[in-house]
Amino acid sequence: MNKTILITGASKGIGFSLAKKFLENGFKVIGTSRSGKIEGIINESFETLQLDLSDFKNIEILKKEINDKGRKIDILINNAGIGPDLDFNNPEEITFKQTFDVNVIGTTFLTEVLIENINIYGKIINISSKMGSIELCERIDSVAYRMSKTALNMYTKILSNRLSEKTKVASVHPGWVRTTIAKSNITEGRLSSEESANGIFNFAISEFRSGIYWDVETETELAW
Question: Where is coiled-coil annotated (predicted)?
Answer without folding.
Answer: none
